[in-house]
Amino acid sequence: METQKLYYQDPTLREFPATVLSCEAAGEVWKVVLDQTAFYPEGGGQPADHGVLKTAGGEIPVTDVHEKSGTVFHTCAASVEPGTVVTGVLDWARRFDHMQQHSGEHILSGILCRLYDCDNVGFHLGAETVTIDYNAGISWDQALEAERLANEAVWADRPVEISCPLPEELAELNYRSKKELTGKVRIVTFPGADCCACCGTHVLQAGQVGIIKVLSCQKFREGVRLEILCGRRAMDYLSQVYTQTRTIAQRLSVK
C-alpha cells in the first residue's frame, strides 16, 4: 500500500496523526509503515527526517526513513502494534535546515548552470556542509558572482512554485534534471533563479533560505566541486569567522 506523503502536501507540517499498518523487526530496530507520514525519506541527496512517534505508552524515536515502491518505512527504536493510532512529531530544526540547504542549492545551481552553461551532476547535503559537482570549469570569481545573484534571488523573497505538469506540458518546459525522467515528474521552480525536477522538500518563500555562502571551488574530475552553506549554517559559520578574526586582532593589538 502506498503511503500518503504529507510532506509534499505541506512541507511545514511538524505534527500529524497516523495509523500503524505494519511493524517488522530488522535486527535491533523496527520498520514501521504508517498510512500517512510527514517524515521525509532519504532521497535525491537529502537526508531523512528524524523525530518521534507518540503513543499512549510513550515516545518512540524515529532514527531513519526510507521509501520503497511508494511505501515509506520508518526505522524506530521500539515496536508498535499495527492498528495503533500514533502522533508523528518531526525534529523540525533538522527538517528546516535541510529545506534551507536544499533550496539554496537549487537557487545557486540554477544561476550557475544558466550563466556558465554547465550541469549539476552531483549533490550531497552533509551534516556540516553541502557539496555540489558541476561538469564544467568555474573560476572562484565566477562562483562569487553566482553567489551574489543567488542572494539577490533569496532577498527578492518570491514564492516557490511546485507542480507536476502533464507530459505534453513537461515536454515544453525548460527544466534541469540529472537524468531522463518518465511518469509523474515534480518540478520545483524558484522564479528568476531555477526550474528543476526534484523530489525533496523546500521552503515556501525564497527568503526563508536567509543567505547563501560559497566556501570553496575546487577542480573535480572534468569540472568543479563547490562547498556551500545556507541559512542558519551560513550565519553560524560567518559568526565564527568574525569571532576568530576579532580575537586574533585583539591579541595582535591591531584593528
Task: Report on this structure.
The protein has helices at 6-9, 92-116, 140-156, 167-171, 231-252, and strands at residues 4-5, 15-26, 29-34, 36-37, 51-55, 58-68, 71-76, 85-90, 120-125, 130-134, 161-163, 187-190, 194-197, 212-220, 223-230. It has 255 residues and is α+β, with helices and mostly antiparallel strands. The model has no long low-confidence stretch (mean pLDDT 95). The strands form four sheets. Strands 2-3-7-6-5-8 form a six-stranded antiparallel beta barrel. It has a four-stranded antiparallel sheet with strand order 9-10-15-14. A three-stranded antiparallel sheet has the order 11-12-13. It starts with a strand and ends with a helix.
Layout: helices, strands, pairs:
Layout: E1 4-5, H1 6-9, E2 15-26, E3 29-34, E4 36-37, E5 51-55, E6 58-68, E7 71-76, E8 85-90, H2 92-116, E9 120-125, E10 130-134, H3 140-156, E11 161-163, H4 167-171, E12 187-190, E13 194-197, E14 212-220, E15 223-230, H5 231-252
Parallel strand pairs: 1-4
Antiparallel strand pairs: 2-3, 2-8, 3-7, 5-6, 5-8, 6-7, 9-10, 10-15, 11-12, 12-13, 14-15
